[in-house]
Model the fold of this input.
Amino acid sequence: MIANCAEKFRTMIPYPCCPQHKAGVEMSAHGKASHQCPNCGKYVEFDYDNETARIVKPSRGASHRFKRK
Done:
């Protein structure tokens, strides 16, 4: 049986800066992740275990640590 797209999500967490935008949390998601708000550009840290979100400062230069040589 093919699952409906909405059945894959455990919940939807709204962005604290722009509540009309939401991030979907899949059933198997755990931990934390940061994303940029698609509306205002602020960085938001999502805690998938506690189903919360908070505005954070961007980690400048973090992507260079994981760049392949």
